Backbone:
């Protein structure tokens, strides 16, 4: 049997797992390189264009800024509507007894394969993660737990995994420690390649040995700091059993970055909750979403595409695009609206926290590499409906463009005509009214932050001993930092990432440091 | 027992309806706000609804505690940048703007406002009772100025207040006192300068005299014959010529201060909007070769403005500290500050009264010598 015979037809293409232009040749290479350049050029052209328009056509620039400010207010209202709705749904799902709800299904045959890739995280982080799995309201004998260590992390990382194996192996149906070699050609170091290796190993060492049908395995690929809520596996089973195409679906929980929320700085909390809110929005419009961070999918689906890619940075979303393109567009994200807990990005110092958040968001926004991938394959895979190809390409492109440009346009370039405009412009009522109007519209938009503050408090874990009640006040007020965080931790790292891609200075995977207060 | 969640995913139809509702709001709001920000307003006057165009006025002040009045109606104080007033919704036409505060001199100007355009002005309000800082030869160990004569109180502090305490000594003994080096510095300034002891007019006459002795041509005082003192700050120059005082713009046309310029309409219009003197100055500039008119797209700009010396001789002049729009003048009966902006009229305010006084501005500090006493005039206005 051919090495690729088990793959879906489109996944058998040699360029199916392309990550960079330099992996292709001829026209394909040039086209992919062009796609790598487009996002950066679009972002810079927008920013420079507004500056030039402010200098040479300040009236047009001013009208555009007013239009954009109104658009921003309405967008805030639109997204707040989604957040608020998902918040209701999330709270409702957290109150449901999923264990009872799945009783009507015959699901004993299903196994949950849970993969925890890790690097050099301390054992306390792994312990908390595994305790979360043990606390699940689910038959742990139906769990296949894999701790995927990196050889490049040294013997210490393997020792940590072995310690956990000794301690917890008997608690689960199967427990496996994999060591991802550091010298596999064609891979980049990171979570994606580690998971890719772990999936192959667990297939060989557990799944095939135990003769477990691939269709009967639900694979959850979790970041190492993921602490599941007790009903996660029941909830996952429920959705798996009720969706129309369970083998053509990814299951996306809501990541709450709350594990260390009480220890994290206000800056970390704002960034963490902002990420959560974005995922909550996407939960209500899953047709526009891709998988993010920790998520679940059938092993069968992964097997049919060769376990995703080991050569990309944003592997969490790329796996969805692999699945979607290989299945000719017939693959979807199912929003579970059920939480998992993860870590807010922190460091031991303030500046360290800033640096870590910046690097993490730069890595996330480097997800723009996925846009090149999907547009490239949309031109190749004509089996995907044309409308879907166009809508996904435009939607994803707009997303990466607006991520980078909108905060800068709103909070910085909005004032450009006032400073750069001509004398004729400066003498007009428009010149004086523009900052007042933009300021007032931003104030209206900021009311959306009140919604954010209230929802974030409701998702905050109970106050641990030793933390003042005053912290709740800080947690409300911290949201005034949002205009700043949008620029520093969304727009600038996004621009950084897109510029790197534009110049072919490809990024590697940066591991977000995790820690626990001992 | 429930078999499925009661709250389902947000229905696409709801999302779609909400989305198009917001699009509708956008389409309605955008033109409304663009019209608003360009100066259009709905008017309900005379029980008729109509759309009118308005202009604005932007007035900067040097005092945070002033009250601003437009056509006798008080303008609400700005909340954030309290030293600048942006007044909206002003109908086109002539408007009087008044900036005043108790204890301060009043600044008044009448300016034209055009539709969709903002008229700029810069107000200043000097205190009615000038604040001065005594500079004495001797001071106490703690730095308090010491006077040896009670006459100071009658001659100086009757018309000014001190920003610092001073000490009146009935004894002339100085053993417990220390010499004030600043006094020696200021004394040397006045000792080395004669600028405020001779008027501009006197120097003009001297110039005419010298010209007369040097040549045999008739004694017609040509501009070039007057000994001219020039003071420059940035691109602004002050100079006297033929006993008159002028401010001249030396910089580019794009950076010229607004008050040099008028809209490029007729002389009659300029007279009506800014006063006859401005119209005459513009017309003079049109035919002048030495101070040409700068013609921009929609305006013409003089480069020279004559300053109002209140029909008195000017003994000393310089820029008011930290300003290139205000001029300090020592006239016959005191020290005055005038604005270069001559639209409508130039506001001129008394800074320090006196006839037997000399003035020097050194490093943006105003020093005066009143009789035998030296002072610094406080230009940072103290507000309560």
Residues:
């Amino acid at each position: 049997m051919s090495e690729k015979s088990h793959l879906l037809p489109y996944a058998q293409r040699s360029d199916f797992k392309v990550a960079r232009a330099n992996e292709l040749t001829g026209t394909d290479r040039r086209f992919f390189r062009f796609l790598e350049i487009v996002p950066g050029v679009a972002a810079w052209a927008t920013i420079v264009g507004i500056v030039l328009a402010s200098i040479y056509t300040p009236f047009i620039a001013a009208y555009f800024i007013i239009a954009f400010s109104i658009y921003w207010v309405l967008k805030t209202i639109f997204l707040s509507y989604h957040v608020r709705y998902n918040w209701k749904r999330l709270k409702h799902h957290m109150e449901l007894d999923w264990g009872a709800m799945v009783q009507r299904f015959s699901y004993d045959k299903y196994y949950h394969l849970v993969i925890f890739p890790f690097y050099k995280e301390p054992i306390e982080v792994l312990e908390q993660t595994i305790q979360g799995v043990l606390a699940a309201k689910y038959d742990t004998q139906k769990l296949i737990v894999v701790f995927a260590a990196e050889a490049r992390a040294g013997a210490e990382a393997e020792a940590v995994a072995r310690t956990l194996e000794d301690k917890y192996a008997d608690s689960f149906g199967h427990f496996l420690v994999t060591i991802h070699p550091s010298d596999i050609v064609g891979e980049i170091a990171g979570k994606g390649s580690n998971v890719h290796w772990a999936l192959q190993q667990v297939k060989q060492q557990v799944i095939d040995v135990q003769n477990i049908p691939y269709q009967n395995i639900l694979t959850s690929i979790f970041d190492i700091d993921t602490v599941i809520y007790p009903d996660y596996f029941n909830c996952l089973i429920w959705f798996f059993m009720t969706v129309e195409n369970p083998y053509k679906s990814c299951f996306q929980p809501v990541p709450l970055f709350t594990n260390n929320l009480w220890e994290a700085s206000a800056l970390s909390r704002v960034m963490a909750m902002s990420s959560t809110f974005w995922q909550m929005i996407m939960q209500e419009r899953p047709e526009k979403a891709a998988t993010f961070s920790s998520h679940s999918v059938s092993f069968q689906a992964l097997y049919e595409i060769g376990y995703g890619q080991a050569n990309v940075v944003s592997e969490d979303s790329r796996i969805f695009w692999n699945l979607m393109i290989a299945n000719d567009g017939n693959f979807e994200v199912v929003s579970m609206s059920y939480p998992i807990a993860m870590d807010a990005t922190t460091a031991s110092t303030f500046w360290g926290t800033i640096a870590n958040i910046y690097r993490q968001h730069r890595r996330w926004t480097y997800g723009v590499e996925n846009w090149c991938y999907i547009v490239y394959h949309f031109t190749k895979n004509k089996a995907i409906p044309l409308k879907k190809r166009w809508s996904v390409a435009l939607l994803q492109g707009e997303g990466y463009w607006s991520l980078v440009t909108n905060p800068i346009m709103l909070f910085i370039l909005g004032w450009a005509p006032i400073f750069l405009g001509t004398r004729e412009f400066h003498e007009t009522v428009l010149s004086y009214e523009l900052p007042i109007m933009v300021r007032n519209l931003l104030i209206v938009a900021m009311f959306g932050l009140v919604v954010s503050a209230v929802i974030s408090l409701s998702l905050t874990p109970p106050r641990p001993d030793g933390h003042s009640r005053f912290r709740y006040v800080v947690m409300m007020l911290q949201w005034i930092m949002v205009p700043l965080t949008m620029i520093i931790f969304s727009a600038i790292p996004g621009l950084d990432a897109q510029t790197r891609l534009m110049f072919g200075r490809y990024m590697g995977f940066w591991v977000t440091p995790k820690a626990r207060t001992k | 027992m429930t078999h499925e969640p009661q709250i389902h995913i947000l229905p696409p139809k709801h999302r779609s309806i909400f989305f198009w509702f917001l699009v509708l709001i956008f389409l309605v709001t955008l033109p409304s706000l663009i019209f608003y920000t360009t100066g259009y307003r709905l008017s309900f006057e005379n029980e008729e609804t109509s759309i009118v165009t308005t202009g604005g006025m932007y007035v900067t002040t040097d005092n945070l505690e002033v009250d601003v009045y437009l056509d006798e109606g008080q303008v609400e104080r700005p909340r954030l940048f309290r030293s600048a007033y942006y007044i909206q919704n002003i109908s086109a036409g002539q408007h009087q703007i008044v900036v005043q505060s108790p204890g301060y001199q009043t600044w008044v100007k009448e300016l034209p406002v055009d539709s969709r355009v903002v008229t700029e002005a810069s107000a200043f309000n000097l205190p009615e009772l000038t604040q001065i800082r005594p500079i004495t030869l001797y001071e106490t160990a703690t730095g308090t100025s010491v006077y040896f004569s009670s006459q100071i109180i009658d001659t100086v502090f009757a018309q000014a207040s001190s920003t610092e305490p001073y000490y009146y000594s009935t004894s002339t003994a100085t053993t417990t006192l220390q010499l004030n080096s600043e006094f020696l510095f200021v004394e040397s300034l006045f000792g080395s300068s004669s600028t405020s002891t001779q008027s501009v007019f006197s120097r003009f006459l001297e110039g005419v005299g010298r010209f007369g002795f040097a040549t045999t041509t008739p004694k017609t005082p040509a501009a070039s014959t007057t000994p001219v003192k020039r003071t420059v700050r940035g691109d602004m120059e002050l100079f006297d010529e033929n006993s008159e005082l002028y401010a001249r713009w030396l910089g580019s046309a794009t950076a010229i201060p607004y008050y040099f310029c008028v809209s490029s309409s007729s002389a009659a219009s300029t007279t009506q909007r800014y006063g006859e003197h401005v119209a005459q100055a513009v017309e003079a500039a049109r035919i002048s070769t030495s101070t040409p008119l700068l013609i921009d797209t929609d305006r013409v700009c003089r480069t020279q403005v004559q300053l109002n010396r209140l029909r008195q001789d000017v003994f000393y002049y310089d820029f008011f500290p930290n300003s290139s729009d205000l001029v300090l003048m020592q006239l016959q009966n005191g020290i005055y500050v005038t604005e270069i902006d001559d639209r409508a009229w130039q506001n001129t305010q008394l800074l320090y009264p006196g006839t037997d006084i000399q003035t020097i501005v050194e490093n943006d500090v105003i020093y005066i010598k009143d009789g035998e006493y030296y002072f610094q005039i406080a230009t940072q206005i103290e507000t309560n």
